[in-house]
Specification:
By secondary structure, this protein is an alpha/beta fold. It contains twelve helices and ten strands. Strands 1, 2, 3, 4, 5, 6, 7, 8, 9 and 10 form a ten-stranded mixed sheet that branches.
């Protein structure tokens, strides 16, 4: 039996963890905190919406290294915490994992892979991301609204044994998973979407459809794209104007989509802005590029954080 640890069991980690836990060959431990942890331990995990599941009992803990959490080091860790919690997740994982543990990050942003690789070694960390419409609507309850897909791969594009095995694990659990030959570029494309739509909706309180109804807001979306495109190029990743069209125009069909940052602001939670506009500003500064729109977003998010 394989031991799987879900590091961050909110909407994303909880959804995928529930599917993995439904397979007898996997022993899944959920790391959570607060009321959500108590609900998992007492009532289990419920998935509502397009998928209906009720997982009970659930093995859940606040600390993966606690004696009650794991009876053996995990074979696989799926990191799904918010970017601002990555360093704390690393601290908690250090005593819990072994040299044979593989770590998959499906977090938003690009910097988390770098942080995890610096700590645990790139041979133990796999870059990935997911696209999913899900929300933690109550402690222990996740509302699934579709768009579930997971992508991961090696930095050199090779179909290594570990990523192919990871794909099989996801297939056993009924999770749509793709091994990418260009994971860094594809992660950047996901980053572009977040850097535009999460940042704009989280700051404005608007859903994604409203951006297309306002000519000035639509222009800002493209300004954000061009700044990120320039930084990607400086980082050795080619992003084309067509990619911008695909990312931006492809969002029209989502309707009044509520991004994760939009949801977090409505709930009064910390906002994951530093992983997007903050990252772009840091990289642009190092590359001596001008990114005034991202700088403005970063400044406004910091003000918002101080005022709320």
């Amino acid at each position: 039996m394989q031991n799987i640890l879900i590091m961050g069991s909110g909407a994303v980690g909880g959804f995928y963890g529930a599917h993995l836990a439904s397979v007898d060959r996997f022993h899944v431990t959920f790391v959570a905190r607060g009321a959500h942890l108590k609900a998992l331990q007492s009532r289990g995990l419920r998935i509502t919406g397009l998928t209906e599941m009720h997982l009970q009992p659930v093995n859940a803990a606040a600390d993966p290294s606690a004696p009650s959490a794991l009876d053996a080091p995990p074979d696989l860790v799926i990191v799904a915490v918010k970017s601002y919690d990555t360093m704390e997740a690393i601290r908690l994982l250090q005593p819990a994992v072994s040299n044979r543990t593989q770590i998959l990050t499906i977090q938003n942003g690009l910097e988390n892979y770098e942080l995890l690789s610096d700590e645990f070694g790139s041979e133990r960390v796999i870059r990935g991301f997911c696209k999913i419409g899900a929300e933690l609507t109550a402690p222990g309850v996740i509302d699934y609204r579709g768009l579930s897909s997971m992508v991961f791969g090696e930095e050199d594009g090779s179909p290594s044994n570990r990523v192919m095995q990871l794909q099989k694990i996801m297939e056993y659990a009924g999770i749509a998973a793709e091994v990418s030959r260009e994971i860094r570029r594809e992660a950047w494309l996901k980053f572009l979407w977040n850097g535009i739509f999460n940042m704009m909706t989280g700051l404005s309180g608007a859903t994604t459809d409203m951006i297309f109804d306002d000519a000035d807001a639509y222009a800002v979306a493209w300004q954000l794209f061009y700044e990120m495109q320039a930084v990607a190029s400086a980082e050795g990743v080619r992003i084309t104007d067509k990619d911008g069209t695909d990312v931006i125009e492809g969002t029209r069909g989502l309707g009044a989509f509520k991004t994760s940052t939009w949801q977090d602001r409505r709930k009064g939670k910390p906002l994951e802005y530093d992983a997007f506009c903050g990252y772009i500003v840091r990289k642009a500064t190092a590359c001596k590029l001008a990114v005034p729109v991202n700088q403005a977003f970063l400044a406004l998010y910091r003000l918002l954080e101080q005022s709320e």
